[in-house]
Design goal:
The chain is mainly beta. It has a domain at 46-99 and 115-148 and 184-250: Porin, CATH 2.40.160. The protein has three helices and ten strands. The protein has an eight-stranded antiparallel β-barrel with strand order 1-2-3-4-5-6-7-10. The longest helix is centred in the N-terminal third of the chain and has 20 residues, at 2-21.
Length: 251
């Protein structure tokens, strides 16, 4: 994919620049350079991820049932934290979750499809401090997560009285058309995610950062519905470029 090749090229160039320009260990830099300071111990906080999506197989099925395509991105929220080990190396972990859905009423039947994703993992980063209050970092994270595709169909909107009427004893033995339908497909995945980022300490104890990542996913098991294997599912790959903004507190 062209976007992937371009992203990897940018990562390599920026990594070579950062390493060559700031290869000197932080411990050797005079402290007067860091007038206001940055994180040196532990930190954690809130993050937002913008994940690009390219899911033609799923969008094809949505079109077949009269629903619009899934958005070309998903917003995931979460948080994480890390601790410095020394020499500009830190380790930590994080977690994210998000969803995107599409709904409509083709043929007078309400339908909704929701795509949900959750992930979490372990990270290792190398940090450089070229300016006051500022850090550049290169990192690699690895972990796992899960994906759900939930398909719901109903004759709604349903009222309180309608629900109790269908549940009542007087409906036993009668024939009526029930278009309600719900299925949830689930699958686990593993991933690797290289990243390059920038963080600025507004205060000694608070910083705002931004990074660019590429998440490479592979499936850990087959798609399942209520624990039973579902066959014939086309390839649905979530590997893509993502962007994260984070708000961290620490010391």
């Amino acid at each position: 994919m062209k976007v992937t090749r371009n992203f990897i090229g940018v990562i390599v160039l920026l990594a070579l620049f950062a390493i060559s320009a700031y290869s000197e260990d932080d411990d050797d830099h005079p402290r007067w350079r860091y007038k206001h300071g940055f994180f040196r111990g532990v930190a954690g906080g809130f993050e937002v991820m913008y994940l690009n999506l390219d899911l033609p197989a799923l969008n094809q099925k949505l079109a077949e049932v009269g629903l619009p395509s899934i958005d070309d991105h998903m917003i995931l929220t979460g948080g994480g934290g890390w601790a410095f080990l020394g020499k500009g190396i830190r380790i930590g972990g994080y977690g994210f979750g998000g969803s995107v859905s599409k709904d409509g009423k083709p043929y007078h039947v309400q339908k909704e499809v929701t795509l949900s994703m959750g992930l979490g993992g372990f990270l290792v980063e190398k940090v450089f401090h070229p300016f006051n209050n500022t850090e550049l970092y290169l990192g690699l994270s690895s972990g796992g997560g899960g994906i759900d595709i939930k398909m719901v169909q109903w004759t709604g909107p349903r009222s309180w009285d309608e629900l109790w009427s269908e549940f009542g004893i007087d409906t036993l033995g009668t024939e009526h058309t029930n278009l309600d339908y719900e299925v949830k497909l689930s699958r686990g995945f593993g991933y690797l995610m290289p990243t390059i980022g920038f963080r600025y300490n507004i205060f000694r104890w608070f910083a705002v950062g931004f990074n660019v990542n590429y998440i490479y996913c592979w499936k850990l098991n087959s798609w399942k519905h209520e624990g039973k294997k579902v066959t014939g599912v086309p390839e649905i790959d979530f590997s893509n470029v993502s962007y994260r903004i984070n708000f961290y507190f620490g010391g």
